[in-house]
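Please check this protein record:
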Amino acid sequence: QVQLVESGGGLVQPGGSLRLSCAPSGDSRSFNVMGWYRQAPGKQRELVADITSGGSTNYADSVKGRFTIARDNAKNTVYLQMNSLNPEDTAVYYCYADRIRSPMKWIYWGQGTQVTVSL
């Protein structure tokens, strides 16, 4: 069973930065798409950013220009560099990864890491 392990969340002041990391535990097989979602209290889970194995990226409009997603395929790890954080970025951030063997698709989620932006 693949487990995605996230790290790097925490409390930061507005305007600050955090870097999230996510890697699988106990599984070295590669993923297709890896990314990050977030869920704020009372809101639905939303895509923050994702990246394909080839390096193509996709960002939510609300984070463009502030967040950068990257991955290290050799380490099967995905990163999210978050700059210029504001209170609206406060949420639980979930790592996401999938594998495809057409027509089958496997989806994996991390347990989430809390990001709080506050004075």
About this structure: The first strand starts at residue 3 and ends at 7. The chain has a mean pLDDT of 95. The two ends are 39 Å apart (CA to CA). The chain has no helices and eleven strands.
